[in-house]
Design a protein that fits this description.
It contains 19 helices and 28 strands. With about 600 residues, it is α+β, with helices and mostly antiparallel strands. The chain has three domains: about 190 residues, Threonyl-tRNA Synthetase, Chain A, domain 2 (2-Layer Sandwich), CATH 3.30.980.10; about 290 residues, BirA Bifunctional Protein, domain 2, CATH 3.30.930.10; about 90 residues, 3-Layer(aba) Sandwich (Rossmann fold), CATH 3.40.50. The protein binds one RNA strand of 75 nucleotides through helix 1, strand 2, helix 5, strand 7 and strand 8.
Length: about 600
RNA sequence: GCCGACGUAGCUCAGUGGUAGAGCAACGGUUUCGUAAACCGUGGGUCGUGAGUUCAACUCUCACCGUCGGCUCCA
């Protein structure tokens, strides 16, 4: 029985929304045709009672959505796939013909196809309509196909999943059958191989194997426990970030996790974001709330005393832990959680300072991301939406500041017209990981709303009170999500500056235990994270264990090393070389400093 | 939340109505060994939780909890 591999290339939806419609290239045409063949096969096998919805090509393949009673079961897939392969082999021509709206509606009314009628109703009058036929299957379709079923080449059905009609949970739940297709079998095989590789990098699997973190059923879903190995990495990341921010003029602050509900009424979060907040906590007849965002807290710090233009810019940074109610079905390992710690900061500045602060922030983001071996970025600027708050001219200035900051960083950007939040324009930075997947990490968001809601002011040089401009920004995003991305990026083989254990000292026999401890102490004195392996195992076993633990360096010490006062350094890749402990320390210290 | 699948030892997984299994890990012992897994032994499971059906439930039914895939990529 075939195994149905999940589609592992999970992409942030926002990215797709912003990707210019995939050039109607050959692959998309081929997959679009494959979707029609899927529907053809389903109708062949299950009859005309199946209600047809839509069947587009998508990023990694295609799907077709159906409504069928009883529902499809996984065992149906091989049958359907086999029928598709027959159809492919029959070299059926794909042909399209224009059709009038009336004829199309009659066609689908006669066949009792409500979703097709719904689609028709959604197409504006005057748009030309067409029907495409391949073999015995005709479908309302805009076109964009290969000429023959044969051109579809290699096809594989991947999974069945529920999906609301038009993605709206008020609509009926349909079943989508997902598949992928390529011109050649070899390309399909390669794709499936890539999926397997992605699966091996899954942070949930590696997190367990390397004992980095866990999510405990008893404690609740979406709440992350960082184990010592994960904690070591996190603290290295946090130290790094803190140093970066200190150098850039940020001030560390700390704010409570629970504050009076009133704060979120003032901020407006309760009104607009309330559904994503944890419920109230009653204390002495007052209602408190877990914070879903750090901004109100930082604002209260700003507001705690009168501010002068001389105090600005004020850059308040916090690893702020927030709690958000995410629907249970959306939780996913470290990538989508209910409790998360943002590398958050809020910048309060004068309008004149906005440009410079934005540049500084973008520069900080790129510097940090590069330190984690991300070097392929895509920037998205989201501009004023129709429901925007505030003066359009102010928006334009802010948008110009964002664009200038991108230019200043020397990076191209794409513009999402009208994609900004109602309270301000923003920049999002996406990174591409080691196997080509994109993740949104940084976000730098101007806010024209909260300063007003909290009545923030500063005394200007003119002696008048002015409203500061506020910028929210998280550069790594959240520690949880960033860690998940990092795990997958490095496949658990963290660079030495991040690795929870940087070097394992491995004595070959008991006779070298004392020497191994000596080496361990020497390395610890140099601030390295070290494990001395005193287990009663053979060398091969010890090496296998540390290799599985993805420890960057193993320092093997046996009789000859003991005699010569050296260590035999085995790198993660397998190469080995004897050297003095001091030389090793010098090499690794340099490597750590360079973050390579 | 919704649709579907899944939940057996710390991990990976066998076990289709008749007294719960393996490998790895753990623990005890033997071995002291030169670059990816030595040998012997021991312990460990309310089979996610709770109800129900049955003489009998890991196995069948229902509910709940959790996990996984999907739920804006548009005829």
């Amino acid at each position: 029985m075939a195994t149905y591999v999940m589609l592992a290339f999970k992409v942030d939806r926002r990215e797709c929304a912003k990707t210019p419609a995939m050039a109607v290239d050959d692959l998309a045409q081929l997959r679009h045709t494959a979707a029609h063949l899927l529907a053809h096969a389903v109708v062949d096998i299950f009859g005309d009672d199946v209600k047809l919805a839509i069947g587009p090509a998508i990023e990694n393949g295609f799907y077709y959505a159906f409504l069928k009673t009883p529902a499809f079961v996984p065992e149906d897939l091989p049958r359907i796939e086999a029928r598709m392969k027959e159809l492919i082999g029959e070299d059926l021509a794909m042909s399209g013909e224009p059709i009038s709206r009336d004829a199309a509606e009659k066609h689908y009314r006669d066949r009792d196809q409500p979703f097709k009628l719904d689609i028709l109703a959604g197409i504006p009058d005057g748009e030309p309509l067409s029907m495409y036929t391949i073999g015995a299957f005709t479908d309302l379709c805009r076109g964009g196909h290969v000429n023959s079923s044969k051109d579809v080449g290699a096809v594989k059905l991947m999974s069945i999943a529920g999906a609301y009609w038009r993605g709206d949970e008020h609509n009926p739940m349909l079943q989508r059958i997902y598949g992928t297709a390529f011109p050649e079998q070899a390309q399909l095989d390669e794709y499936l191989h890539r999926l397997e590789e992605a699966e091996k990098r899954d942070h949930r699997k590696i997190g367990r194997e390397l004992d980095l973190f866990s999510i405990e059923e008893q404690a609740g879903p979406g709440l992350v426990f960082w184990h010592p190995n994960g904690g070591r990495i996190r603290s290295v990341i946090e130290d790094f970030v803190r140093k970066q921010l200190r150098d850039r003029g940020y001030e560390p602050v700390y704010s409570p996790h629970v504050v009076h509900e009133d704060v979120f009424l003032t901020s407006g979060h309760l009104q607009s974001f309330g559904e994503s907040m944890f419920g109230p906590i009653d204390v002495e007849e007052q209602r408190y709330r877990l914070k879903p965002m750090n901004c109100p807290g930082h604002i209260l710090i700003y507001k705690s005393k009168p501010r002068s233009y001389r105090d600005l810019p004020l850059l308040l940074a916090e690893f702020g832990t927030v709690y958000r109610y995410e629907r249970s079905g959306t939780l996913h390992g470290l990538l989508r959680v209910r409790g998360l710690t943002q590398d958050d900061a809020h910048l309060f500045c004068t309008p004149d300072q906005l440009q410079g602060e934005y540049e500084n922030t973008v520069d900080a983001a790129l510097t940090m991301l590069r330190a984690f071996a991300f070097d392929d970025f895509r920037l998205f600027v989201s501009t004023r939406p129709t429901n925007a708050l505030g003066d359009p001219q102010v928006w334009e200035r802010a948008e110009a500041a964002i664009r200038n900051a991108c230019d200043h960083a020397g990076l191209a950007y794409e513009i999402d017209e009208g994609g900004g939040a109602f309270y301000g324009p923003k920049l999002d930075i996406m990174v591409r990981d080691a196997i080509g997947r994109e993740w949104q990490l940084s976000t730098v968001q101007v806010d024209f709303n909260l300063p007003g809601r909290f009545d923030l002011t500063y005394r200007g040089a003119d002696g008048e009170d002015h409203q500061p401009v506020m910028i929210h920004r998280a550069l790594l995003g959240s520690m949880e999500r960033f860690f998940g991305v990092l795990i997958e990026h490095f496949a658990g083989a963290f660079p030495v500056w991040l690795a929870p254990v940087q070097a394992a000292v491995v004595p070959i026999g008991e006779a070298q235990f004392d020497y191994a401890e000596e080496i361990g102490a020497r390395l610890r004195a140099a601030d390295l994270r070290v494990a001395v392996d005193r287990s009663n195992e053979r060398l091969q076993k010890k090496i296998a264990m540390h290799q599985a633990g993805k420890v960057p360096y193993m320092l093997v010490v046996g009789k000859s090393e003991l005699a010569s006062g050296e260590v035999n350094v085995r790198e993660r890749g397998g190469s080995q070389r004897a050297m003095k402990p001091d030389e090793f320390v010098a090499n690794v210290t340099a490597e750590i400093a360079a973050r390579t």
